Amino acid sequence: MLFFAVFLLFSILILRLGEIQIVFGDDFKRELQRTEDVTVSNPVPRGKMFDRNGNVIVDNKPLNAITYTKQQNTTQKEMVETAEKLAKIIKVDTSKVRDRDKKDFWIVQHPKAAKQLITKKEWTLYDNKKWDYKKIYQLQLDRIKDSKINHYSKQDIRAIAIFKKMNNGYALAPQIVKNKGVTPQEFAAVSENLENLPGVDTTTDWDRKYVLGDTLKTIIGNVSSAEEGLPKESLDKYMALDYSRNDRVGKSYLEYQYEDVLHGKKAKVINKTDKAGNVISQQVVSEGERGKDLVLTIDAELQKKVEKIIENEMWKAKRQYSTTGLMDRAFVILMDPHTGEILSLAGKQIVRDEDTGRLKMQDYAQGTFTTSYNVGSAVKGATVLTGYQTGAIQPGTSHVDEPLHILHTKVKKSWKTFGRINDLTALQVSSNVYMWKTVIAMAHSHYVPNGPLPIDKTAFDTLRRSFSQFGLGVRTGIDLPNEMSGFPGPDRTSGLLLDLAIGQYDTYTPIQLAQYVSTIANGGYRMQPHLVKEIREPVMDKAGEGPVIEEIQPNVLNRLDMKPEWIQRVQQGFRMVMQTPNGTAYSFFRGATYNPAGKTGTAQAFYYGSDRSRWGTPVMNLSLVGFAPYDDPEVAMAVVVPWAYQNTGPAINDLIGKKVMDAYFDLKKERQTDKTKKTTKRSTDNNNDTTQSNQ
């Protein structure tokens, strides 16, 4: 019976083996040979930025890097072991290691002890799927005593920092462990020990290189680090666009605005893995391509000259005048009035160095479109044109410039009493009273000395609507994020309408002033300002610019609904400001060979800067708009110096404006001279070659 039972069991076993091998053999064989294709995208360097003359502004510099690639079957314990080995070879920043990171590390190191932190009842709830693992893990973290994690040595802390970085990546996707400050000794040591460091590799990474240093840094923007990866607030958006969590992206301004252009095409590799998750082969699907390059409208050489002028004049005013104590910023914009191309976008700010306690100058170019101020009489060109359009005045209309005595209001007057003047003279000498009488007529009112001044409050809407056609009080459309539109005053009294007419009520950004004066300079076309001139294909194997993919065309946002002769008359008034005696800028621009035109501005305002203890202090904001040459404008300019002085001080707006215009035309002349010399030399060389050939 025993023999028969054994025989029967072996017979069943043989039959079963036969069934498995014959009937299901092919199925099991296919299962053993089953593979999985996992596509991994590797990041590529970002595109470069050039100035309008082909000079590199932003580049990529190579970095030695140490990476870690987690396999699909890699365990947490194996990762900890690798991190501990790597910590003996390289140094990493441990300042961001938190208690939570130490506890994560401890749980992997002590799995049995970590399991015992959970009671049997709690494990039962987990087994019955009433609790998820996330709850169990959180309980483990909460129950780990500080004594268990406070004994870690410096090397252990380095291992924890490395382990944290290893965990940030996806399976089969390389994760940066260290890419800044990798010493040659560290790079060599890791390379020599790769066999004992599974998943670790040495490679070349990249970082942004700002060729101009601090110049334009706030406009160029920032890129997230390898540690930061995708910003949390934009995570879903980028993940939907096939980004990886640890990809570096533009965080601000040009880097952010043109992220889709600068990011490039990632290299794609298909990893073929077996059933156990081991990589058995790799296939490169796409080599990837560096991001496309941006050619900016900025003239880098001109930009540096403009910034130097701002710095020199601000420091000089700080040294020489005690009333300039609150002045801490100044802005200059140079723009092609016909295309909207920004030639220079400069802003400087004086701040106190946290380390030394001394004052220092830093880039503040973003303030040209993210901050707004009362700009004063610079807007009077728009006021006069609005007067023409509404019929409040006609070209040649004259008014008596006299102090205005309005009931229950302080006397209002110009900086000087001018008597009877017309529209051109009003612009030339910057008459406030002429502008006031213009908007009084616009508001269907009439000035009676010592009487009330009732107004039609829709005049506020009329004036603001007209100003917006020049770009004042509305976004200009510059190709940068976070542009502000300024602030319109909330109240609508007769006195505030008068203030609005002379630029002392609503606030405007410096870029709005540049668009406004460009609109007057070019005959009435409001051009959209832009910083990017071209998008080009990257050149992978040599320096220079690649083929043009897209050229940014000039964009007219609107045309002034005004007669050309009206605009020409205001242009003439602007010319008188700078080129005729009694013009408010004549003492600075007289004799200028480039035939300038423009308008100065001074606004009574209140300080609201970084020193909160001085908020509300009465100050003077200074501005200047201009263009040149008057008869064929090629450059428009806006200068704004907020909180320039208290009571009295230097005309720093005119000082800066004159030197900036000089710099522009001097640079143009230098380049033309150099071009002529090169052409002459080339012609001479060709003639010499021809002579030698004939001989």
What does this structure look like?
The chain has 695 residues and is an alpha+beta fold. Among the domains are: 75-170, Penicillin-binding protein, N-terminal non-catalytic domain, head sub-domain (Arc Repressor Mutant, subunit A, Orthogonal Bundle); 301-524 and 560-672, Beta-lactamase (3-Layer(aba) Sandwich). The chain is 39% helix and 19% strand. A hairpin with a 6-residue loop joins strand 19 and strand 20. Helix 15 runs antiparallel to helix 25 (652-694) and helix 17 (380-390) runs parallel beside helix 19.
Outline:
InterPro entries: Beta-lactam/transpept (IPR050515), Beta-lactam/transpept-like (IPR012338), PBP_dimer (IPR005311), PBP_dimer_sf (IPR036138), PCN-bd_Tpept (IPR001460). Its main location: membrane. The protein is an alpha+beta fold and 695 residues long.
Count of helical segments? 25
Strand content: 15-25%
Mean pLDDT: 90
Helix content: 25-40%
Relevant CATH superfamily of the domain at 301-524 and 560-672: DD-peptidase/beta-lactamase superfamily
> Which CATH top level class of the domain at 301-524 and 560-672 fits?
Alpha Beta
Q: Work out the oligomeric state of the chains in this entry.
A: single chain
Estimated structural class: alpha+beta
Q: Give the name of the CATH architecture of the domain at 301-524 and 560-672.
A: 3-Layer(aba) Sandwich
Organism: Neobacillus paridis
Membrane topology: Single-pass membrane protein
Family: Belongs to the transpeptidase family.
Pathway: Cell wall biogenesis; peptidoglycan biosynthesis
